[in-house]
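Hi there, hope your week has been kind to you so far. Do you reckon you could talk me through the fold, stretch by stretch? Thanks so much in advance, here it is.
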Amino acid sequence: MRTWIGISKVACDSKTSSRSSRPSLALSMSYAMNTIRYAWILTLLPLVAVPTSGSGSEKGSLTCTTTKEYVTTLEYLRAQPDFKIPEEQARILANQVSSGCTGAASRFIRISEVLSRSGVGGKDSVAIGKEFASRTDSQTDAFVSVYRRAFLAEYLDLDLKSSLSLARSLSSEFEGDATEVRTDFEKLVDFCISTKNLDLARPDCATFAARLAREGQAFGGGVSAGYIRLYEFLTSESGPRLTTRDALDLAKQIIKTGPTGIDNFMQAYRYAVSPKGLTLGERDALVFAKNLATPLKR
């Protein structure tokens, strides 16, 4: 039985299945206390301004608080006996984290805490934390959000390896807008696990949400709202009334054209079936709308 290490309350009793033994989304008290502890350290340190090539959240800036990042990281590591990191190694690691510039320590601690509390070993937690110290805040936010939804029982309930792989693919390995892809993934997971919507099996939902969220990389924007709107139209009485499977297949094709393609499709279909438009049947209207929504394939 896997649990989230920490003081956070986990709803689990004799009647609860192993799925609900996963953690809740509330931050643990220990994490909150650590956050307060490391926050006061920052107030004791002056701002150290050095030129930077643009790491982390301060890309393109000349202000880089390397000393704050170093001290905060080192103090954090000293307070983590479970990590079993020797002092000399901790100092080297703190120096490496500080090169991530302003906010690096916060990103490092956040990733390390989330992973270690979910059962990832200290060595791996620290290694991934160090990697994200040099990433942006939005990439870090995306990793944490995707990882939690992948791992937590109330969402996708995936194993650690699959959760980590999925989180990387939509953060550090994603070349588009990290904020948009995080939002897309969250909305799509909620949509596909809901019993009122798709109600997919958890592994199928993970594949579905990740694949669609990646589509936003091609045109630098969110795709979830448009996709869900298109699916609801395709299955509605005011639309072509497709089955769930047919609607998913068609929406998958249309989404590749971007938000504009979705609008083109819906407008074209409505015009095609309208008595004042082309007065086509549903099948012919679908062909017509798809043709206009995917002009590059004509």
